[in-house]
Design a protein that fits this description.
The complex is a heterodimer of chains A (157) and B (375).
Chain A: H1 28-39, E1 44-47, E2 53-54, E3 71-73, E4 77-86, E5 99-106, E6 113-117, E7 130-135, E8 148-153
Chain B: E1 11-18, H1 30-43, E2 54-58, H2 61-64, H3 69-73, E3 85-88, H4 92-103, E4 110-118, H5 124-129, H6 144-157, H7 163-177, H8 191-194, E5 199-202, E6 204-205, E7 214-223, H9 224-230, E8 235-244, H10 258-267, E9 270-271, E10 280-281, E11 286-288, H11 294-304, E12 311-312, H12 327-340, E13 346-353, E14 359-366
Parallel strand pairs in B: 2-3, 2-4, 11-12, 11-13
Antiparallel strand pairs in B: 1-7, 1-8, 4-7, 5-6, 8-14, 9-10, 13-14
The chains are: A mainly beta (157), B alpha/beta (375).
């Protein structure tokens, strides 16, 4: 009969373990166009058969699944539909100081986009407030959601 | 639709077991957490693994960072001789759905469903971000609390509920959990006391968040006469359905749960009518709702039309223990247990997956099989 005493906390072996997603994916005609637009300082939406503009665009209507039509440029400002306050930003999030997460309905769009708002504090935030995109410098943009550094209150930038 | 079990054999929950739900299972691996639960669920009905017509599990490899970790977990059941087996990379409630569809055919009479997860093994907030849209959402690394807080703010803005309502849900959950020996977070704090908690991501305070939980659970399903042989009061599944919403967060109305409503309608526990009025529940005795965040219970209650007479989450719910991949199946087990122990004649269980209640499953349970002569 073998007997293994319970391990003490200090005896537990620990090792780092890195998870990677080592695939290369094509972003396709719609997502790819949107990301290229970000690199060029534009925000594109997709037009659905019903005439709604989906931002950020998908290859299909998110409600009816119908194929979308042409891509159109929408405004770089819009309305905060809802927001939350990240007092303690986590690793890799867009800003390293307290900020607001927000669903932003851009001018000309019918669906809201997730991004962050750089604001002095939660008292500076409200649903319905207008915000505008603050871009990274053109030379630093790579076709990525973080090409938009953040949104800021309209008139503050 | 295939969701309702019209014309097919009735299926029932006949046994349910779960581990203690704890913050950190550091000295036991998945198999060691799971194995006593599997033994328990079999002993309750005097069955063995070799008598199972089908085995289906739910788990997530990302939690332990080990590909195909669900395969090694089969050691807790016994992988030899070979068995008919399947796995979903989802909560065990969705594995139960798969087993339920198989049991309605005539070739098997019993199925084992189990799920397990040690959320403590990784940074759960980052792991759950990996399920999000990989182009538009995940690159910003929003944690699950940040997204749930967007939903909570929208609910407050709608004028239907307040932060105090969220605290009341948490206070009731923790109080009910005092009667659940497996629960992790329990206590007698009042809602007023809980309102003193700090915000994690405003408007969500600490009490409105689920705990990080390690644990495992298992259920045995049986069809037709076999269910009555195995269990004095089987919990018959009278309907089940699951639906998913778009992964475009900004295209959803986060203050409602249309997929819960539709799944509830297909499962036979909600009457929607022409859709112009509020959904009306058919009136179950107990509802076990998988609402990881306090405000989500309020959204689910409205979607299912649950009245004041319905006992919601007598187990304490997901605010008392939220094993990722586990808590949904536990809801079905807890709801079924209220029927098997005679305290309820009818119940519903709900399970969710994805951010902000993206995907929802509703399972209707009753002390009698659906009354259309199917049994």
């Amino acid at each position: 009969m073998f007997y293994f005493p319970a391990m003490a906390e200090s005896d537990v072996l620990r090792a780092p373990h890195v998870i990677e997603y080592t695939y290369t994916r094509s972003t396709g005609p719609v997502i790819g166009a949107f990301l290229t637009g970000l690199r060029d300082g534009k925000i594109l939406g997709a037009t659905t058969p019903a005439g709604r503009v989906v931002v950020p665009p998908t290859e299909y209507d998110p409600i009816t699944s119908e194929e979308v039509g042409e891509l159109v440029e929408v405004g770089q400002s819009g309305v905060v539909r809802t927001w939350s306050w990240a007092a303690h930003p986590l690793k890799d999030q867009p800003l390293d100081r307290p900020f607001a997460w927000a669903l932003v309905l851009l001018d000309g769009a019918d669906t809201a986009m997730l991004h962050v708002v750089d604001a002095a504090g939660p008292e500076a935030m409200s649903s319905g407030m207008r915000v505008t995109a603050r871009w990274r410098p053109a030379g630093e943009r790579i076709g990525h959601m973080k090409d938009i550094e953040c949104f800021v209150a309209e008139g503050a930038s | 639709m295939a969701a309702a079990s019209g014309g097919r054999r009735p299926v029932a929950v006949v046994s349910f077991a779960q581990s203690d739900m704890v913050r950190r299972e550091e000295l036991r691996n998945d198999v060691e957490v799971l194995q006593p639960v599997i033994v328990d669920v079999f002993e309750k009905v005097g069955l063995t693994k070799d008598e199972m017509g089908f085995v289906c599990s739910g788990s997530c490899d990302y939690l332990v960072g080990a590909p195909f970790s669900f395969v090694s977990a089969l050691d807790a059941v016994g992988a030899w001789p070979p068995m008919r087996e399947s796995h979903v990379e989802m909560d065990g409630a969705f594995a139960l759905y798969e087993a339920w569809t198989q049991l309605q055919e005539d070739d098997i009479d019993t199925a084992l469903v189990f799920s397990f997860g040690r959320s403590s093994m990784s940074e759960l907030g980052r792991v759950l971000t990996l399920q999000l849209d990989p182009y538009y959402v995940a690159p910003l690394w929003p944690d699950p609390v940040a997204l749930a807080a967007l939903q909570a703010r929208a609910l407050i803005d709608s004028g239907r509920y307040t932060e105090a309502d969220f605290a009341a849900v948490a206070a009731r959950s923790r109080r009910d959990a005092l009667n659940n020996p497996h629960a992790q977070v329990k206590g007698e704090q009042t809602a007023e006391e809980l309102m003193g908690d700090d915000y994690v991501v405003a408007p969500l305070r600490r009490h409105a968040l689920p705990p990080i939980t390690d644990g495992a659970t298992a259920i045995i399903l049986a069809a037709g006469d076999r269910a009555a042989e195995l269990c004095e009061r089987p919990a018959w599944i009278t309907g089940m359905d699951h639906r998913i919403e778009t992964h475009s967060l900004g295209a959803r109305d986060l203050t409602t749960s249309p997929t819960t409503r539709r799944a509830g309608e297909a499962a036979g526990v909600v009457e929607v009518g022409d859709g112009s009025g509020a959904p009306v529940g058919v009136g179950v005795d107990v509802a076990e709702l998988h609402a990881p965040f306090a405000h989500q219970e309020l959204i689910l209650r409205d979607a299912l039309g649950l009245g004041e007479a319905v006992a919601v989450n007598p187990s304490g719910g997901a605010l008392a223990a939220n094993g990722v991949m586990v808590a949904g199946l536990v809801r079905i087990g807890e709801a079924a247990s209220r029927i098997m122990d005679g305290t309820a004649q009818s119940a519903l269980a709900h399970a969710t997956s994805g951010p902000c209640l993206q995907q929802n499953l509703v399972c209707a349970l009753a002390a009698e099989p659906a009354g259309d002569g199917r049994r």
